[in-house]
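Open question from group meeting: does this chain pack into something compact, or does most of it stay loose? Before anyone orders reagents, we agreed to write out a predicted structure and look at it together. Recording both the input and the output here so the notebook holds the full record.
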Amino acid sequence: MPGIWNRTEGAFTESGPLGVVRSETFTCVHCSGLQEVNVRARSEVGWCRKCNGPTCNGCAGKKCTPYEKKMAMAEARAAALRSYGL
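Structure tokens returned:
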């Protein structure tokens, strides 16, 4: 089964009383959350045109701030606070 736009990052298999279910997953570029791809409704996956990556429904309409940039800002803030002796 091909991935969404050939960019899925993983898959999980779940077995239960209804049988075995296999789903594709992707990581949101804004929050780094692991999301399940609903194969029947691929339009539910958001896409950030600025980052050029998939987004979850929670981040779909928000300002584009990639997860890596958020982490760099948090590290810079922590370094500044350490330099102030806090």
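Observations to bring back to the group:
The radius of gyration is 17 Å.
DSSP finds one helix and five strands in the chain.
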